[in-house]
Amino acid sequence: MSNRLNLVPSGTHELVMTRVFDAPRHLVFEALTVPALVKRWMQGPEGWVLAVCQIDLRVGGALRYEWRHEDGRTMGMSGTYLAIDAPAGLTHSERFDEDWTAGEVVNNSALDELGGRTTLTSTLRYASPEARDMVLGSNMEAGVAASYARLDALLEEIAREAAR
Amino acid sequence: MEPDGYSSERLDAVFTALADPTRRAILARLARGEASVAELAAPFAMSQPAISKHLKVLERAGLVSAAVDAQRRPRRIEGAPLAEAVGWLERYREIWERNYERLDALLEEMKALETQARKGKPQ
Known about the structure:
The complex is a heterodimer of chains A (164) and B (123). An eight-stranded antiparallel beta sheet of chain A has the order 1-2-8-7-6-5-4-3. Chain A has four helices and eight strands. Chain A has helices spanning 25-33, 35-41, 129-146, 148-163, and strands at 6-10, 14-21, 48-55, 62-69, 74-85, 89-96, 105-114, 117-125. The radius of gyration of chain A is 17 Å and the shape is globular. In chain A, strand 5 (74-85) and strand 6 (89-96) form a beta hairpin. By secondary structure, chain A is of the alpha+beta class. Chain B has a two-stranded antiparallel sheet with strand order 1-2. Classes of the chains: A alpha+beta (164), B mainly alpha (123). At the A-B interface, strand 1, strand 2, helix 1, helix 2 and helix 3 of A face helix 1, helix 2 and helix 5 of B.
């Protein structure tokens, strides 16, 4: 469980995701930036595949991702690379075709290697506090109904944190 | 639960409230049962006014409520706002957990290939 994903809102604009991988960071960096490799893992929700992945890995270069659902729906995202520091990290902007994030999101990935393991920290910065909250709201409805089992899980997490 | 009661302002207040370790610890304490401000302050080595300030943030977010009638006004945890926030986070987390599990498998393959390539090269 030590490789568990940690996902927290940060401040008013950001979401921060942290995950440890059992691999040196040059490999993680490759898996994040080589289209054939990205396609293998970044599939999104159940039923979707990353059908198109174009990456022009230089500052100012474009990226284009398109996901396809087995029922025919598609979802696309475009962006631009803003900073590249292989294999320590990179920053790109991204925006979905439907703009459901209300403006561009700036996505910073930082890779820290320790003893052959890599911590990937992804910081997603939304255009405004409202934009971040709207993203939260738009995805939330499905979660509202279930709730109490999940609440238990969070409380356990809070309790563990309190015990530390 | 009242899905219509959701507002992005409240959600923001929830996340702001949860961003602080002392406030998460207060919630953890209240999850075990209601407590007065004095009782909450005791384990934290903080003054009651400092704890009250944190409680105000938690109350504004709807995460904690105070009993109005009782003299010691014990605070209690309110589940619904937390559950709303957690519902979304859990769903997002699940998507990325699955993505990253696939990435784990891919990295294992890449490591094996790299080792093979290194062995194949003449020293």
